Amino acid sequence: MRLSTAVERFLAAVQLEYGYSEHTVRAYQRDLAWFVSFAAASDRDDLASCDIELMREWLWQRQQQGLAATTIARNVATLKSFGVWLERSRLVPGNPASRLRAPKAGRDLPRVLADEQMRRLLARIEARATVEHPESLRDHAVFELLYAAALRVSELCTLPLSGVDTEARTVRVLGKGGKERVVPYGGPAARAVDSYATLARPALLARAAQSQRAAPPPSDHGALFVGSRGGRLTPNAVYRMVARELGEETGGGPRGPHTFRHTAATHLLNGGADLRVVQEMLGHSSLASTQVYTHVSTERLAQSYRQAHPRA
Q: Which residue of 73, 118, 138, 217 pairs with 209 in a disulfide if CB–CB is 3.0 to 4.6 A?
């Protein structure tokens, strides 16, 4: 069997059988496409040649290209998942990636907005939200919910209208690996979501249907957040929206929707929330993934100490 054929089968398995997220599948597809190209250039595009030496040669080439340690670590993780699948599928006698080791990398702290920055940003977006412009009501609800419920952008865009419990102020989201969880949100987010759902969402769907008279009208797919054409709001649209607003705030670092998730987690911990409660809210399978936010809080404490203490 050709290596490229095995990769195609693996990608189909992780997407259809294992229920991996679209983001993970794309990352696997990208990494393994490079790996297959490297193997083909070496005249080793057959499964029998897929051994640890081939993998190490590819990873070494990636390092020589100056790629970050985090990228190499992701490449190793991809190869390990592929190797496990090869062994389970009995296409090879053992896992060829079992002895691969990822390079150690310093863990960058996520970008977090200060309390005052977040209040200013949300107030700015709320001030622009008017019934005459349904997109503005939608954007306000998007920002409030991203922060209030610490959602991933994929969870926000796939959130169904039926997943919102307005009385309990909770959303039922489908996270990584198809795991479902219920997350609470507060009063400001509730008001923004209610205004959007009752006023703006119907207006956006009606306007999309009117603009597509020659074509079949867009069906109500049940997603809470919709775009200007009536379809689901896309992650790319949310990224652009967030990047534009974060560009007006001081501080470096990423300008994507995950900043709101990082900020919410850090503010919860700073406010005294239990680490395991935050883990449950974020949908982390491992407590270690949540503990990075304790480092953020500690760093802020240290920074305040250095600025304020006379003997710092």
A: 217
